[in-house]
């Protein structure tokens, strides 16, 4: 029993930039980015205050 050889006749990937299908995600909105930054800052403050409280 032999294994079938892989086919090399696959079409080349298209490199045209189709406006219907964006290649990457759109960048996050400014409000969403600000929310993530605020969440990170609040988490950092909680960690620092918790460390000060426990020492």
Can you give a write-up of this model?
It contains one helix and no strands. By secondary structure, the chain is mainly α. The longest helix has 25 residues. It starts with 29 loop residues before the first helix and ends with a helix. The mean pLDDT is 80.
Task: Write the topology of this structure.
Elements: H1 30-54
Distance between the termini: 71 Å
Estimated helix fraction? 40-55%
Approximately how much beta-strand content do the residues carry?
A: under 5%
**Number of DSSP helical runs:** 1
Largest sheet: none
Structural class: mainly alpha
Rounded Rg? 25 Å
Number of separate strands: 0
Principal-axes geometry comes out as elongated
Given as residue ranges, the uncertain stretches (5+ residues, pLDDT < 50) are none
Mean of all residue-level pLDDT scores: 80
N-to-C SSE series?
A: H
